[in-house]
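Hi there,

I know you've been waiting on this one. I reran it after we fixed the sequence typo, so this is the corrected version. Both the input and the resulting structure follow.
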Amino acid sequence: MDGLQLKAVVLGAGKGTRLQAGENDAPKVMREACGKPLLWYVINALPIQSKEDIILVVGYGKEQVIEYFSGYNFAVQTQQLGTGHAVMAAGAQLEGFGGAVLVCYGDMPIVKRETYEDFIRAHFEQKNDCTILTGESDLEQPFGRIVRDSKGGFLCVVEEKDCDEEQLKITELNTGVYVFNTPLLLDALKHVRNNNAQSEYYLTDVPGILRENGAKVGLYERNLGDEILGVNTQEQLDLVEKIISKGL
C-alpha cells in the first residue's frame, strides 16, 4: 500500500502433522491447492510490492520454501514453540523499523487482498498500536475468542483450549491476523510467557500486554465467510482447493 511504512511477517514453519500422507513430507505451507503452494496464495494477496518487506518464518522443510520463494527474507524458527515464538524468530529483522508490521499465516490462502487492504487501512486511520482481524464463521476452526469489555472495546484473546464454558459461546473469533506498531510488538514479545495448556508462547497474549501498558488496541470485525479457513487437515485442504478452483 503506497505511502505506508509497512512490512509483513508470514508464519510458515509448521509441519502440518495431520496433513502428512504417504511420501508427501512437504511442510504445510508447501502443500498444493490447484497446483500452487498454499503460501503462494497468501503472498500474492498481500498488498506489499517489495519482496524485501516480507519475512517468511520457516522451520520444518525450510529448504523447500526457501528454494521456491527465492528473493524473500527468511527467519528460521528452529523449534515450534508457538505463534509468539515464531514472530520472535523474525525479531532481529524487524529491529530498527519504526513502521507497522502485518502478521499473518501461510496456511490461510483464502484471505483476499481487499480484506488485507481494508484491515491495514483501518489500523492506520484509527491510529492503533495493534489491530486484530476478527470475524464469525460457520466453519469449525480452533480459533481463540475475542473478549470485549463493557464498552465493546478489546479486553483479551483467549485461546480455544484455554476457554471456559462461557467463553466458548463467544462467536467473534480471532483470525490470528494482526497489524502492530513494530517497536511496541518487539517490546511486548519480551513479556510473553508459556504458562498455558500447550506450554507455548502465544502471539495472542501480545494485544493484552499492549493494552495493559496503555497502548491502543483496536478490533476490525468483518464478515469473512470462507476467508477464515486455515488448513490443518486433508478435508480442509480439499475444501480450499474447491474454493480456489471456483475463482479461477
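Quick highlight: The longest strand covers residues 173-181.

Best,
R. S.
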